[in-house]
Specification:
- The complex is a heterodimer of chains A (151) and B (181).
- By secondary structure, chain A is mainly α.
- Chain A contains five helices and no strands.
- Chain A has one domain.
- In chain A, helix 2 packs antiparallel against helix 3.
- The longest helix of chain A has 36 residues.
- Chain A starts with a helix and ends with a helix.
- With 181 residues, chain B is mainly alpha-helical.
- Chain B has seven helices and no strands.
- The longest helix of chain B has 25 residues.
- Chain B starts with a helix and ends with a helix.
- The mean pLDDT of chain B is 86.
- Chains A and B meet through helix 2, helix 3, helix 4 and helix 5 of A and helix 1, helix 2, helix 4, helix 5 and helix 7 of B.
């Protein structure tokens, strides 16, 4: 397992890139995600594996997880900075939940296709809830404080 | 409505089982704390999505097995088998195989069918321990085709819908393959 900071950085960048291709460039989620997955897979297989063995062992898996999260609709994630937070949650969950899909024979999700997408969906749900609470309780307080200050 | 409820429960069970298994096997208190911090808002998000899915004022279209759904089923089956073949027989690896299928689907197919083909290809990324041969991949292709056709509205717009469908289908396929052995 790569250090947690590497996982989180890769996750944020990958999520933001997919979101940019998906929403900003309007190329669609499938194209955006597939491009990131393929580039990360090729980069790992033909370059990183030989030159940096061990350091970035989880690189394609983390990039893939965040790229699945980047397929989210603009209805739920409004801009690229919010996508950065989703990437942060996805990377953190990938690190914290790795025992569920590691090479341990007891791991229920070991080798199961779709595990990375499941992590992406959980990260999106967590973000949507946090964002909903933030817009409901934090933003109204701030705006009322600003109104009082201007009056 | 019954179809939506069963679909939602199956999807939610896949997500929750991942979180609870991770919590159960958490190697340290830091892992445990992170997982709790993510699990709580996820459960709220799932609850909110439950109300969206079961909202009677927006019942959605009745389920009809139209031409589009047949295309979804066929493309899902082909995507799983091709991804499995590229992954294990050609030795390209799961990520390159999945990316290639995704790019082909996004370029050649209409948006909805490309999305389902890409989601189905996640199943083909499974290890040989789960799908040991091409026959098992074919069974998984049939299962994911049925799951994707029946659960169109569940997790719609959420990044990771395809992955959750794939994980659910892979678990179901594992069960059926185990029964057939």
């Amino acid at each position: 397992m790569s250090p947690v900071y590497q996982i989180i950085i890769i996750s944020i960048i990958s999520g933001m890139l997919t979101y940019t291709i998906n929403v900003k460039l309007k190329k669609g989620g499938v194209f955006g995600s597939a491009l990131i997955v393929m580039v990360s897979g090729l980069l790992y297989k033909f370059y990183l594996e030989q030159h940096f063995p061990g350091i970035v062992a989880t690189f394609p898996a983390v990039a893939t997880t965040a790229s699945y999260a980047g397929m989210v609709s603009e209805k739920y994630v409004k801009n690229i900075w919010q996508m950065g937070i989703v990437g942060l949650i996805a990377g953190t969950l990938f690190f914290a939940g790795s025992t569920a899909f590691s090479d341990n024979s007891e791991a229920w999700f070991r080798g199961v296709g779709g595990t990375l997408g499941t992590i992406a969906a959980i990260a999106c749900f967590a973000f949507i809830s946090i964002n909903k609470l933030y817009t409901r309780y934090v933003i109204p307080k701030n705006s009322s404080c600003q109104n009082q200050a201007t009056q | 409505m019954v179809r939506k409820i069963i679909g939602f429960v199956a999807f939610a069970a896949t997500s929750i089982s991942f979180l609870f298994f991770s919590l159960w096997k958490a190697p340290s208190k830091v892992h445990y704390a992170i997982l709790v911090l993510i699990t709580v808002p996820t459960l709220f998000g799932l609850l909110r999505h439950w109300f969206e899915c079961t909202d009677c004022s927006f019942p959605g279209k009745h389920f009809i097995m139209d031409k589009n759904k047949y295309f979804i089923f066929i493309s899902a089956f082909i995507a799983v088998v091709m991804t499995w073949f590229m992954n294990h027989e050609m030795g390209l690896g799961a990520f390159v195989a999945n990316g290639t299928i995704g790019l082909i689907a996004a370029t050649l197919l209409p948006t909805v069918i490309a999305g389902t083909a890409y989601a189905a290809s996640f199943v083909g990324m499974s290890s040989l321990g789960i799908l040991p041969n091409i026959q098992a991949a074919c069974i998984a292709g049939l299962v994911v085709g049925i799951v994707l056709v029946l659960t169109e509205e569940i997790y719609a717009g959420i990044g990771g819908k395809g992955g959750t469908s794939a994980a659910l289908s892979t678990h179901l396929s594992r069960f059926f393959i185990h029964l057939l052995k």
